[in-house]
Amino acid sequence: xxxxCPICGERDRREFYYQGAASMLDRPDPDADGxxxxxxxxxxxxxxxxxxxxxxxxxxxxxxxxxxxNTVTHEIIGTELVEAADAD
Amino acid sequence: MTDLIAKTPCAxxxxxxxGGWSLSEVDCxxxxxxxxxxxxxxxxxxxxQTAHGLGLPRPGNSTRAGAARCLWFGKEQVxxxxxxxxxxxxxxxxxxxxSDGWAVVRLEGADGADVLARLVPIDxxxxxxxxxxxxxxxxxxxxxxxxxxxxDALVIFAFRSMAKTxxxxxxxxxVSVAAQHAAP
Lengths: 88, 184
Ligand SMILES: [Zn+2]
Known about the structure:
The complex is a heterodimer of chains A (88) and B (184).
Chain A: E1 2-5, E2 9-12, E3 17-21, H1 34-42, E4 50-56, E5 64-70, E6 76-81, H2 82-85
Antiparallel strand pairs in A: 1-2, 3-4, 4-5, 5-6
Chain B: E1 16-18, E2 21-25, E3 31-36, H1 41-52, E4 62-65, E5 68-72, E6 78-81, E7 93-97, E8 102-108, H2 112-116, E9 134-139, E10 142-150, E11 153-159, H3 163-182
Antiparallel strand pairs in B: 1-2, 2-8, 3-6, 3-7, 4-5, 5-6, 8-11, 9-10, 10-11
The structure holds zinc ion.
């Protein structure tokens, strides 16, 4: 499996560290209900198909990426820097 | 007072030669890590030009002026080598002296990429990785920075604490690839 880092270009999977679902970027309001926070922390979809995940280019430039991939075919559909998607 | 003698990171380990390749230690002189403050990349570029006559390298590249060299060293960070950093750089960048922190070795000889292909998961041939190109990547299990110096030389930066591992891994690959090339 190869992932294209927007900074470094196409690199081998072993240079990257997998963090988890990209839903971690959708942080609830600090005052949100405890159930909302519990769901945010603990509930994950387990899709057969498209998924959005956070990967870290650990052995490369050090950027956090959002990687969209297909869990059935292992196709990498796209990558972008977290800061581009999370610029608030 | 006792006059202490500095020991280089690869003292007692290098140089070695196998096949058409040699591996030797590089003394980069001062090594300074620079990370521009938020929004200050252009200011750091200008400050580097004024102080050292070289610009801020783009990702995957390096710049050079005389003994001074500036290597891209990861996202929004660079390493200045070969020269004491000008005071003005501190106005626009975080800095740290890492001169004693790095083991730096040079693999010389034609097709050095053949040797490192055993260890490094990227294409280091001159066609893909030309003079002055820089990559942050892996050497076996270690993170390293690799610089192409000219068509026949690749320079590897690894943590000083991993100097022996670096030399062992690269030398083992040199021996192996040399034997493979010598086979009938
Ligand atoms: Zn990268």
